[in-house]
Design goal:
- It is a single chain.
- This protein is an all-alpha fold.
- Helix content is about 55%, strand content about 0%.
- Helix 1 crosses helix 4 and helix 2 packs across helix 3.
- It starts with 8 loop residues before the first helix and ends in a 17-residue tail after the last helix.
- This is (African queen) hypothetical protein.
- Pfam families: CENP-B_N, HTH_Tnp_Tc5.
- It is found in: Nucleus.
- One of its GO terms (cellular component) is nucleus.
C-alpha cells in the first residue's frame, strides 16, 4: 500500500484545471501515485477547493475554520487597520486584543494563547518582522 499523500490547495487546483482541460483521471492517478477515488474526490469538492484557493494561503493542506470565527474576524479587521497605519504589532499585543474582543463579544470561554495567535498568523499569512519604514534604535 502506498503512503498517504496530502496535496496543497495549489496542487489540487492544478489537478482540477487539468481535469477541466480534458486530461484523463487514470493518467493523473498514475502521475501522482494516488487512487482513482482521490482524484474523483477532488473533482467532487472542486467548488470548496476553488473557494479556498481564492481566499486563503496556497500552502495549506486542510481547510480548517477557527472555533471562534467572530473573534478572529474582529481581530483581523483591527490588525489590518493598525498595519495600514504602520503600527508594529507583537504577539502579546495580539493576544491582549483578542481577549479584549472576546470580552466585548461576551465570550467567557475564550482565553487567547500563544498557539492560537500562531495559528491565526498562519491562517492569514501574517509574518513577524519590521513594518515598512520602521527603524531600529540602539541605545548604549
Amino acid at each position: 500500500m502506498a503512503p498517504r499523500r496530502t496535496f496543497t490547495v495549489k496542487e489540487k487546483v492544478d489537478i482540477i484545471s487539468r481535469l477541466e482541460n480534458g486530461e484523463n483521471n487514470v493518467d493523473l492517478c498514475k502521475q501522482f501515485g494516488v487512487s482513482h477515488s482521490t482524484i474523483s474526490t477532488m473533482w467532487k469538492n472542486r467548488a470548496k477547493i476553488m473557494q479556498c484557493f481564492e481566499s486563503k494561503s496556497l500552502k495549506i493542506k486542510k481547510n480548517r475554520n477557527p472555533t471562534h470565527q467572530d473573534i478572529e474576524n474582529v481581530l483581523l479587521v483591527w490588525f489590518k487597520a493598525q498595519r495600514s497605519q504602520n503600527v508594529p504589532i507583537s504577539g502579546p499585543l495580539l493576544q491582549e486584543k483578542a481577549n479584549h474582543f472576546a470580552r466585548q463579544l461576551g465570550k467567557t470561554d475564550f482565553k487567547c494563547s500563544e498557539s492560537w495567535i500562531y495559528r491565526f498568523r498562519q491562517r492569514h499569512d501574517i509574518v513577524v518582522g519590521k513594518v515598512c519604514g520602521e527603524t531600529t534604535v540602539i541605545i548604549g
